Amino acid sequence: MVTLKDARRIIAAAEKKAEEIGQPMNIAVADSGGNLVSHVRMDGAWIGSIDISIKKAYTSRAFDISTKDLAEHSQSGGQFFGIHASNGGQIMIFAGGIPLMQDGEVVGAIGVSGGSGEQDHAVAEAGADAF
Fold first, then answer.
1. Contact 113/98 with Cβ under 8 angstroms?
2. Model-level pTM greater than 0.85?
3. Domains of the chain listed by start with CATH number
4. 117 near 77, Cβ under 8 Å?
């Protein structure tokens, strides 16, 4: 289970990484049902990335895969091509979403948006590592 206390710790670690790389981010944490537990928009982060970060967390939990990996498989000709059109448009196939694991089970996810895919993934990893 991902509690609000957990989400705050995850977000704090992700914020620290975002500050280190000098890129303000939107950071979302979802529970096992893909529901938002907490979200932070760092000062200067794009408002358009709020929705993307939340959807990255949802996507990562919905399919129990990082959005970076899902993106690789959803390109034209890939096994998941077109998946972004499923689930009422909630699926994001940009890097930055990572499942949160506890005792070998996926119990939630983090979604990060506001930089390049590489930056988003690095910040999400920092948050996931804090869990």
1. no
2. yes
3. 4-130 (3.30.450.150)
4. no
